[in-house]
Design goal:
- InterPro entries: FHA_dom (IPR000253), SMAD_FHA_dom_sf (IPR008984).
- It holds the Pfam family FHA.
- Keywords: Membrane, Transmembrane, Transmembrane helix.
- This is FHA domain-containing protein.
- The protein is an alpha+beta fold.
- It contains 3 helices and 11 strands.
- Strands 2-1-11-10-7-8 form a 6-stranded antiparallel β-sheet, with no helix packed on it. Strands 4-3-5-6-9 form a 5-stranded mixed β-sheet, with no helix packed on it.
- A hairpin with a 2-residue loop joins strand 1 and strand 2.
- The termini are far apart.
Length: about 210
């Protein structure tokens, strides 16, 4: 009889605990949740909350009273003066910066190339021919009138583009253009190029040529 009462008492306590837990959980579930405004995007809500927080911080911040207003410091602008330029910087400008060009002043005369013509003399069908050559240009000699400056068609042993002559630093050079019959100076075959003198004869095919 005594054990039955004890078991009954323990059962009542356990049932009471279960009921208490169920009621507590229901009350917690019914706790009101702040509703979000309908139709307002989440990022706009976040921006509004951030703005409100910024206003609250600004209003609640402790700013010192009667603080003297600091006047803005005027920055000095450095004026670029031509007189301050170095000689190297003035040279980069292309003229002396301190000088002013006078209106109507004569400009320097551009250097004009002085054309120097040389006489290229050769024999064609027993007749002496003279070709005037501007030594500032390269003189190509051969049988092809489309590719050569001096065309010699009477000598079939001369190649289409046989040789060339050019001047550099007042010195004259003869170049063989891989001709089949070769280019000769004093009966010696020319290989590549060789310096020649004015009035010195050289031979292409069976034609002797002199530059004067």
């Amino acid at each position: 009889m005594d054990s039955t009462v004890i078991y009954l008492f323990l059962g009542v306590i356990l049932l009471f605990n279960i009921v208490f837990m169920v009621v507590f959980m229901k009350n917690k579930a019914k706790k009101p949740v702040a509703a979000q405004p309908v139709g307002q995007p989440r990022f706009e809500q976040q921006e509004a909350a951030a703005d409100e927080e910024a206003k609250t911080q600004a209003l609640g911040s402790n700013q010192p009273q009667n603080q003297p207003v600091q006047e803005p410091v005027e920055e000095k602008t450095e004026v670029l003066s031509i007189a301050n330029l170095t000689p190297q910087e003035k040279a980069m400008l292309g003229k002396e910066a301190d000088e002013t060009m006078i209106l109507g002043a004569a400009e320097p005369t551009p250097v004009v190339h002085q054309k120097v013509l040389r006489s290229v003399i050769y024999q064609s069908n027993g007749t002496e021919e003279v070709y005037k050559w501007d030594e500032a240009e390269v003189l190509v000699i051969g049988r092809d009138p489309q590719q050569c400056d001096l065309t010699i068609t009477t000598d079939k042993f001369i190649g289409r583009t046989h040789a060339l002559v050019y001047q550099k630093h007042s010195r004259y050079y003869l170049v063989d253009l891989d001709s089949k019959n070769g280019t000769y100076i004093d009966n010696l075959a020319l290989k590549g190029q060789q310096e020649i003198s004015l009035d010195e004869a050289f031979k292409l095919g069976q034609t002797e040529i002199v530059v004067k």
